[in-house]
Amino acid sequence: MAYVIDMIPIHLAVYVVIVKVLGLNPLLPELHTAEQAAKAWEIRGAILVCSFVVWVIYCAISELSPWRGTYGKLAMGI
């Protein structure tokens, strides 16, 4: 559960940056060709990879903080 508490805001933030700032849309309204479908999957993969990288950095910084844990761990009492 601590993982979910930590990951949801990170995943949403990365999604907003990729969709709103970079203008890439993983939910293409029309996927008529295999090329369009492949592009949508590439964007979804980029969101997952970026979320993981941000999560690793977030965890490293949080574990080194005076609280010695992420917000999810603190909320769950771990």
Features:
78 residues; mainly alpha; 3 helices
Provide a descriptive summary of the structure in words.
The chain is mostly helical and 78 residues long. It contains 3 helices and no strands. It has helices at residues 2-21, 34-64, 71-76. Helix 1 packs across helix 2 (34-64). It is elongated, with a radius of gyration of 16 Å. It starts with a helix and ends with a helix. The mean pLDDT is 84.
The percentage of residues in β strands lies in: under 5%
* Count of individual helical segments: 3
What quaternary form is this? single chain
Number of E-state strands = 0
Helical content, roughly? over 70%
Gap from first CA to last CA: 11 Å
Q: What is the helix/strand order?
A: HHH
